[in-house]
Every structure is written in structure tokens, then in C-alpha cells.
Write a structure and sequence with these properties.
Structural class: alpha+beta
Shape: globular
Bound molecules: zinc ion
Oligomer: single chain
Distance between the termini: 30 Å
Strand order of the largest sheet: 1-2
């Protein structure tokens, strides 16, 4: 259906499993904040809305350090 897990499995995989909302209960255009875990460094955790994630936002710490290359 219209869920993050269905349309954006790669983004959904970065969701912190401690979130109450599962990827199947989050819509890609959801405006609620969700916790995420950085795919490049699991110590990086941040909060963002699904709508910002699917539009291309990534880990803010990696954006600063540039340690996560976009290959
Ligand atoms: Zn990061």
C-alpha cells in the first residue's frame, strides 16, 4: 500500500527499530518525525520526517564530515 516500507525499502531500512511506528505504518509523505540510524556509522542517529528522507536528506553528521560518499 502507500507505505514507506513498500515504496522506499532502502529508506525504511535506516529507520531506528525502536520507533513505535513500523515502516508499514509510515507514509512517504508523513510529516511526523521518525528516528533514523546512519547506514555508514550506527552511532549517528537523527530525527527527520519521512517526507524529507524520501526527498534525499541523509545523515546530518555525515553531511558535515563528508565521510559517506555517494557512490
Ligand atoms: Zn552518519
Amino acid at each position: 500500500m502507500d507505505s514507506l516500507g513498500y515504496h522506499y525499502p532502502e529508506v525504511a531500512a535506516e529507520r531506528n527499530p525502536h520507533n513505535e511506528l513500523s515502516p508499514w505504518h509510515i507514509r512517504p509523505n508523513d510529516g511526523r518525525h521518525v528516528e533514523w540510524i546512519c547506514p555508514g556509522n550506527p552511532t549517528h542517529r537523527w530525527s527527520a520526517t519521512p517526507v524529507s528522507r524520501v526527498s534525499g536528506s541523509t545523515c546530518p553528521e555525515c553531511q558535515v564530515t563528508g565521510s559517506l560518499t555517494s557512490s
